[in-house]
């Protein structure tokens, strides 16, 4: 048995290519998913650079060292500033809660590093504006900054975008998106950081709503013009956490604390080109585990999608004879579909985590080619402005609230 | 061959029972559907009275006589006042556009007749109020007045109501309903009466939105508290009609006229008990033919339904162990399901028109027993108030608009 | 209230047209379904003749008079020979168990009457041969004889036939059909006539298998060449009936009797043109209520159908680019679809019973025009031969058994 | 940038644990999928040993070195005997066509190595018997041999097994499985090794049929008793390959060669406990990409599954009241579901390749604990016997053919 790999970080494929060191901050749910992306991307895609999992950062030294070992990172750090400072870190991948995004991202850009930042970009529009400006300045220096709206990388949704952009739907009339989960239905679920406004910024709105706002803007190809919103917190007090919590699972104690974020947000919107939109984000839809569902209706066709069946895209071609038309279920596993040719034969579906592999691939391509990354921090800011307008409308009796350009 | 039936109206079953004469105004799409209901109800259900199709009324004498012959009505009238006056008409069934509902219904109630009135109850809240008041007065005289929200009679939706009322969903959190059709996607579809505010009152809102508002209130068991709305007319000019139009099919000429109703309405709402709701009614959802879809999420379960699959109800029981729970597809064709035992064995589904048979059955039961009919004119008025609030909110920058009690 | 209709049978539409008297034998499940067809057909379709429900026949005088009254038949008879002899009966509709089909049909044809006979055509090939020969002789005298494979009249299946015949599927490779029900899963369900070989001829095979064999031959457009089969009776003893049974519901007592028919039949087959087929008919598929499911795969496309969603046909066009192809759900409610233009607007689905309205329409058209009816008694005989070959193969160690031409 | 990882094989997690060297033979479709499994398993599951990707073997030296680099193997070999002989190879993973399975596996077992062998176990029953015997002897020496029926590791199917074994379905009555693909519908698809009997052993039967036979035996919990079969080769000549082919994609030239395997196999079967089964394996089902579908009906419930929606299991509980029962869609992404707790939160689905991660995990567990691996070579032999009986029955006029115990 050769043992030379000891302590070595996973090296994702293609010896001989220029290495690009990644440093990741945070290693919970998102960190694990990103790690899988970094480990796998070079084994599947033919990349211009070779990503190396250089170091991962967390506050608890023992825990972060264990995470590094398990997830395949060569080193562990307990101070994100030290992580950014490392020579073997070319790209900083931010997987922390939203309250620390701005500080870390600004420092990393300042240090000349590329940045991948989890969504939502920030907890406030002001932070997001600063980040977008910093990213724009950094871009002049050859740095790339991307925000982690990973669902753009579901092949079915990338295909949807291709079809809309290619005119298959004609003029868009309706856009409706829901993102339904149910992990807060149980009133005894404890008060984790995701339910605290100071950490998470908002609740279902920023967590789930951010995804569907980004997807709507991505698919339609223009920003939302204005919104009218209702938000609600159904369960206003929950057990305070005792001990550690990780991601979406946690145990609460007997003392109660106040939930300071929304449980659900329902809003309508207009797009500049005339389409009407409706959005719903909630953690209270019993039985819906990850139901990011969308439908777009145009003058020449319609598309529908459900993240719980992520290998499928439903398409109706309205230019066909009525007698043989209908919504068809495209199994998005063909070589001609986005990202798919690198994977398996037709019908051998992908899963959730593949979005992170694809995200890594697109980011590395952008770094190598100098292309503008998508979604950029500007795109993240655009989403942030919609979220802020939703909160403003909800606070002002649902009045239709324009989004600043 | 015996020929004694000549000119006789169809007699729906059960010789020897007390006959109840029906007179119907209008014989287009709705008239044909109601006729099927009246002809069939006594052949399938064991009724306390025997409905007789006495007379049908329309303005064109030749056309209405042909309709009477085809649809099974014993006589034809060209003046609805004459129809109401007939001795063999005990019940007046109003299947005309909304602008004539109030006048006919008030006259029929005044004449001591029972009334079934198609939805929406009226074109304005004022008319609806007058009708509801008249119905209340008539009720003291033993008359029954019902509004034709026939979808309450889909067995799956009646079952849904039974399950919500029985507590299977716990506390309701979310209600979302869409009613999507696509017959206006084609910009050359002509300007029929349904696109004229003076005849139809409103567009998708009153036609489709009325159904989903009524269903939401029926299923939740309480009236909507307030709404925030957007409406839109995507195609503002359409070919003027040349010659006759019937129902949903028509041909237009080369001259254009202005569409004076909404093509689509999107609105959010709150229920008094705290549930958030969203509604969408449109005739511009390419590929969706009759997609009245709804989902209700509660603390102990969820329900989902799609009118395009009307024999199915989807139910998630959130009190079950997570490892074996999920949305189940109840095929609503069991003897224990509402209305079903009168029909066929399990799995032998019903269709759209059966809602009118069930409606006739419930109305005749109410007449025979003196029970308050559901949905009453008061229920129709309640829907009308929501529709008016939707229009008001849409006109006032989507501001949240309370519904008067 | 006019009372002149008393005792009159329902007259299905179109006064002034030539009347055609129908006499029906049997009034249980099938009789009720046929009655709905006869009552409705002239109200919906523009027919060349006017069907009149002249008389219904059953052995129990009181019960048949009550059925006549409820179902809309003008008279009741207790002897089917008397029914056939009536002057006001031009068409004899046989809705009895299979053991009496041959005798009644032969007598009716002999008497110069048209005949509609429920499926399966007979209990033996010999009977079916005699019936087909008699029908052929009667055809020379202008009489029409049809067998009641009503599922050919589901619009989606008529559309499927149109698409296969029009070459949309190319060369056929695979045909697979199942007909799954579950009403015998409960071992305490009693020994009704459907479980007795002397009455029913066979079990799931003749009841359900007959339908899918006929559909396969109809859709493929040629007879089955040979079969290899397994049959099974899972529950060999059941409670003997106490008191009356009607159709699919009954109550058993404490004494047990022997089930003499198959509970399930599974068989494979070849078509002359080279397609492979598989069939499964069972009453033991827990949770499947009426799952007549089929899929056909050809070199240029595929079709799929499920009777539990009878308004839908699933179609894959294999000549389309792979990137946007997939099984599309055609909602078979468009005016261009078979039978549909007589009914409701798109999306307003039909139910099980409409197949009997369509069957009545096609039969009356055949009578009026002299066209060869489909499915003819010869088609019924063809199915009978396949069923016999299935039983023969099952008895001979599943050996592949050719069907005589 | 540290570069010490150069040439190092990927080390799948958990530094400090006992390393276990893997050597893989073959690196096409299956080799790539297995590599993903070996690279990932230690990053996700907490394992008793640490798998190291020591060496990969292929005949073309340049190609195998490129594959090693891309897929993460530390070394490349061109002779499988050399691979087996390596000190750093503890486990031999055989991903070649079926004609070389026996020779490699026997040599590896002889050399004291653990073995994972792709399915089908061999091309003949004789080879499979020798392999099963060798595996049994090796087991006495502490070696583990597993056959790669990876679909047992789809969480939904592992859950299905758990439910059947736990009695949730009661006595089993029906088992039906299809495995439908369509990559041979195009008659110009060339004559790859998968279409040659000398390489592949059989066609759809061994490739797809092997999977569904194994799954049926796994889920039912007993071996098939006997079969009756039809097989067919629809397209008997195809273009000969020009140049290299890899896996399922290839280009043919203008000369034709003879297809020597089946395109499709359809067979019925009995299980010892009395259940009837039907199987269909085909590469000619246009539009079906990977439709491994199954349904099992028992006296107390039913299960259904479709590999194209691999995160879902459909379950009907027949012990529930009929009014609220129906097939429920279990999203198999809950922590209580097999394999799932190591991955993502509920609703974040897995893909095809995860079956190989799970397979690696189960194999490593068996190696560490000494438990009998499942599926064993004996299980592979059992499948092989069914495949042989299918071919025998098809050659003997479909006669029911018993499987030797």
UniProtKB/TrEMBL annotation, chains A, B, C, D:
Keywords: Oxidoreductase. Gene3D superfamilies: Dihydrodipicolinate Reductase, domain 2, NAD(P)-binding Rossmann-like Domain. Residues 21-144 form the Gfo/Idh/MocA-like oxidoreductase N-terminal domain. One of its GO terms (molecular function) is oxidoreductase activity. It comes from the Bacteria. It holds the Pfam family GFO_IDH_MocA. The keyword Oxidoreductase applies. The keyword Oxidoreductase applies. Residues 159-303 form the GFO/IDH/MocA-like oxidoreductase domain. This is Dehydrogenase. It comes from Streptomyces venezuelae.
């Amino acid at each position: 048995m050769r043992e030379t790999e000891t302590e070595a970080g996973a090296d994702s494929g293609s010896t001989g290519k220029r290495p690009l060191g990644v440093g990741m901050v945070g290693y919970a749910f998102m960190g694990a998913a990103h790690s899988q992306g970094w480990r796998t991307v070079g084994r599947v895609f033919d990349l211009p650079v070779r990503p190396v999992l250089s170091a991962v950062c967390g506050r608890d030294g023992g825990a972060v060292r264990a995470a590094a070992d398990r997830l395949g990172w060569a080193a562990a750090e307990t101070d994100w500033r030290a992580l950014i400072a490392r020579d073997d870190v070319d790209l900083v991948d931010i997987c922390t809660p939203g309250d620390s995004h701005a500080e870390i991202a600004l420092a990393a850009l300042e240090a000349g590093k590329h940045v991948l930042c989890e969504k939502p970009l920030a907890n406030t529009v002001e932070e997001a504006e600063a980040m977008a400006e910093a990213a724009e300045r950094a871009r002049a220096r050859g740095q790339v900054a991307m925000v982690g709206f990973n669902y753009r990388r579901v092949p079915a949704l990338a295909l949807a975008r291709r079809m809309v952009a290619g005119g298959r739907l004609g003029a868009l009339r309706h856009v409706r998106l829901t993102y339904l989960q149910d992990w807060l239905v149980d009133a005894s679920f404890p008060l984790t950081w995701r339910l605290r406004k100071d950490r998470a910024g908002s609740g279902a709105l920023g967590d789930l709503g951010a995804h569907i706002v980004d997807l709507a803007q991505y698919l339609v190809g223009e920003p939302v013009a204005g919104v009218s919103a209702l938000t609600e917190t159904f369960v206003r007090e929950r057990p305070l956490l005792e001990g550690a919590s990780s991601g979406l699972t946690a145990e609460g104690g007997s003392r109660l604390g106040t939930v300071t974020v929304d449980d659900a947000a329902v809003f309508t919107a207009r797009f500049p080109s005339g389409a009407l939109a409706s959005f719903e984000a909630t953690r209270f839809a019993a039985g819906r585990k990850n139901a990011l569902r969308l439908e777009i209706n145009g003058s020449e066709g319609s598309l529908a999608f459900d993240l719980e069946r992520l290998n499928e895209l439903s398409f109706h071609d309205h230019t066909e004879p009525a007698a043989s038309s209908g919504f068809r279920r495209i199994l998005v596993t063909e070589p001609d579909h986005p990202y798919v040719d690198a994977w398996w034969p037709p019908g051998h579906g992908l899963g959730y985590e593949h979005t992170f592999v694809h995200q890594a691939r697109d980011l590395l391509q952008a770094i190598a080619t100098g292309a503008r990354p998508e979604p950029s921090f500007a795109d993240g800011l655009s989403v942030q402005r919609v979220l802020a307008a939703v909160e403003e409308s909800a606070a002002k009796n649902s009045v239709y609230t324009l989004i600043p350009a």
